[in-house]
Amino acid sequence: MQICHFHADEGIRGVPLSNDGTLTYTCTRSQGHPQPGPYTWLQAPPPPDGRALGQLATDLGLAVELPAALASFPGRWVEYGVVEHAYATANPSDFALLVDRYGHTAIKASKYTASAFLARTLGDLSRSGDVLFHEGPATGRWKYNGVISWWSLPPEPDWSPDVSWAQTGLTMDYVPGSHE
Predict the structure, then answer these.
(1) Do residues 76 and 164 make contact, with C-beta atoms less than 8 angstroms apart?
(2) Where in the sequence is the domain holding 105, given as residue range(s)?
(3) 99-130 pLDDT, tens per residue?
(4) 161 is a domain residue
(5) At 121, which CATH number?
(6) Which residues of 112-147 are buried (b: 16+ CB within 10 A; e: fewer)?
(7) 3-state SS of the chain: helix, strand, coil percent to 5?
(8) Residue 45: its pLDDT value, please?
(9) Is residue 3 part of a domain?
(10) Rounded to 10 degrees, what is the CA torsion of 63, 69, 75, 77?
């Protein structure tokens, strides 16, 4: 499972391209990609040393910090925005660095954002089994997406969209420079 590079909430299942572990992914949304229409990318198998995360994610300790953000919701499925809020609240300077580098839609529209980076990293962590992914309904600020990523820690709880953005009443004030 991976997250579309241009839709932080778009969980895509890979299709084997060859027997060496290479997968192809296609986001079927027609808008939001560099070219109109679906967006397809390949994922090569991980290198032999097993390194799953990119350098920035490793430097920020996201293999620890993102599961820690989920740990405050044990045994529950949590909508992506709530996970982002929990991470940003616990790590404000690191989150500010990501917003400065990638932007955030709470500031202005962008094709790749801090949200996309974090969702992509959660996707990487889900492939290693450190966190769990489920597609589910988008609520509140992200309702326009229809569906969005939901996350949990192992062991896998029964699927129920437990902690939604709409339920929590959270605001975007955790995003430095937010206009919302």
Answers:
(1) no
(2) 49-174
(3) 999 999 899 988 788 999 999 999 999 988 89
(4) yes
(5) 1.10.10
(6) ebbbbbbbbbbbbbbeeebbbbbbbebbbbbeebee
(7) 35, 15, 45
(8) 63
(9) no
(10) -100
